[in-house]
Amino acid sequence: MPLPTRSTMTVPRILSNVLWPLAIMTVIHRVLIRAINGSITNDFGTVYAATRRFLAGEPVYSENLLTVQPHYLYAPSGTLMLSPFGIFDNYTIARWLFILVNTAAIILALWLLMRLFNLDVKTFAAPAILLAAFSTEAVTNTLVFTNINGVIFLCQVAFLYLLHTRRLWWAGVAMGLSLAIKPMLAPLLVLPLIRKQWQPFVGALAIPAAAMAAGWAMTVDAASYLDTTMPYMGEVRDYYNSSLSGLGVYYGIPEPLILVARILVVAATLLAVWLLLDYRHNNEVLWLATTSGVVLAGVFLVSTLGQMYYSMMLIPIMLTVVLKDSLVRTWPAWLAAYAFFFPDVWESVRWPYYGRVLEFAHPTLGWLLLLVTVLVVLLWRRASPDRHERIAPSAAAA
């Protein structure tokens, strides 16, 4: 049987043949080699130990928070949600299962994103997105550090998808499950708030409340979460922290300057969210994905803790590049993506000071550049409406 020739194969078919092996091998490498090998940073170790203590009726919040090792910072609701992993007596089996759960969650989230963006999973887009996602620092280190953010990413994408398909009660369930584990996605409730949709708030509030009540009752030292853990989370640490406050503390920048920078970022985020309202009727997917990315980038910058692998939550905004009227079809947006997605190390033997500055600051600069880029494009389109067709809210269906 003769091999297919160039004349018998289309470009999309060629791309699929090229990209699928690269995507599959990259996923296998990230999961079976990088993740299983692990790292000196091990977020699962504290989760496993805490859930074991939780199930045994022992104090959960008994760590020494003065060390620089990963700490257990989940609320009693998160402890309850993660407790099934503490059932396993074998730590290795529990960790491998945790990795597989997060890997499956990331892949499912990418599939949902393709459905949200109306991309055919049978085309080369599927392996391209899979390869790109698993090549990022965000996905790689989520798996290597064995973090729960893969599940949180799935909750985010499910929330956006269910909002778009008007399954509002289920959107609240997706958000509620994520908030029961950690509050990272809470700012995205601004989306149904803007559209005056109350249904998502039921699950988003009831599920974490119920989980907190049950977890609190089952945690023997639940009060320590309020007395010790929450005050610690309110502090700005000067290591592994890419937020504006974290960089400011690390480099000794005066607090008033940090405060001004944070205020400016909040103002820029709010302005971008307001300008994005033009798209909520005539290009809803673009509005949902871009607003979520803008809001989360702003939160990463102004919160007390921002870590580079949080950038996985920015995959939806970058995928809007496939949509008409996308705000990330500019080179600064993808320079920003390089800064917060790529795992390149910038430590330099020849220029140690500048290399170290870039190594610590590039995620922060990337989030900031993405926010600024989106805001500038929005302002440019608003100032020159003839260059960009918009539908007034009054002319569109709610």
From TrEMBL:
EC number: 2.4.-.-
Main location class: membrane
Any GO MF annotation of the entry: glycosyltransferase activity
The keyword Transmembrane helix appears for this protein: yes
Transmembrane segments: 93-113, 143-163, 169-194, 201-226, 257-277, 284-302, 360-380
Domain of life of the organism encoding this protein: Bacteria
Record's keyword terms, sorted: Cell membrane, Glycosyltransferase, Membrane, Transferase, Transmembrane, Transmembrane helix
Xref: InterPro entries: GT87 (IPR018584)
Membrane-protein topology: Multi-pass membrane protein
Keyword set includes Transferase: yes
Localisation per UniProt entry: Cell membrane
Enzyme superclass (EC): transferase
Family stated for the protein in its record: Belongs to the glycosyltransferase 87 family.
The name this protein goes by in its record: Glycosyltransferase family 87 protein
Species assigned in the record: Dietzia aerolata
